[in-house]
Model the fold of this input.
Amino acid sequence: MTQKNHLDFKSAISFSGLDIYTPIEVGDADHWIPTAQLETLLNESLRGLSLDGLALRTRSKVVKTEVCKALGYAAPASFKKTQPRFFGQQLDIYTQKSLNLQIWNEELSPTRRYAIIHIDEHDSISSVKVINGQELALLDTTGTITTKYQARLEVGISSLELVSEQDTLPIRQHVRAGLTFDRSVSPIQEPESGKLLPIDEIFSRLSPLIGLSFPDPGRTQERNRGAGLHRLICQQLGYSNYEDNGQFPDIRHQILEVKLQTSPTIDLGLVQPSSLGKLDIQQIGEFHPRHCDTRYAIFYAATDGVTVTLTHLLVVTGEDFFSRFRRFEGKVKNGKIQIPLPRDFFGI
Done:
């Protein structure tokens, strides 16, 4: 199946006559805009838009109207107070001058997308980042998110452990052993039937990484520390290029989530790996991958503050995750959610 670009989705919505409140099945091949394409559409349409001198209510309506146009929808005469505001695409929008994102009176939803729109010092839109609730929860360092799932990793005697010898049953019909990838294939593009490596081959391709080291950017630079590992993983899996857009799962083309652990506590965000809920990705044929179909590559590492050394690898499906890792839930908190966004969040 040919990968659709962002304009294909915009055209399909425009011709469909759907409004922003019409429910769309997550992953619908024609009308659910995948997060990466959603971000592209919003950046192409909104960048450079001046909001200078507009009252807050007027500014809010102008932004929402421009978002409608960007996605191919006709803007309503007035916007309903639905949650989320763009109900069909499960999309909320936030305009931000600062890196302190505040969400009032709502819990984060793992399938909801959050378009975070950066306003520069001249009151113009400079960049848009789209992220789902699951990914946003992983950025929370304040402990204000109501519920976050965690698990405990206890390494065994072996440095290499294939916990799940096979993929989940629905995924098995879409895998193919011995794949090589063309240079144009990106590790963050949508997965395709026949282009998924079996889980045991993912394990065998990643196993040689154990014992390797790379520079440690420091405990306050977790994202950069992970980037060093992601680059190595892309090479081992056979991709010509390294890409990472912060979405879940990390290696989207393989429905593969990567965890780099220097401590036993694994942060899982808003969704348990064993969940039957659908992933925020496109369908593969007639099948829509679920969280439990995700493959997890969990690396344990030692660091002396200068160098990170990979010591253990465990590979498991979401379905089998809690057969190996002990589950526990984060504390329940209420009130306003405040998430300090990383300095490089908008990539500008």
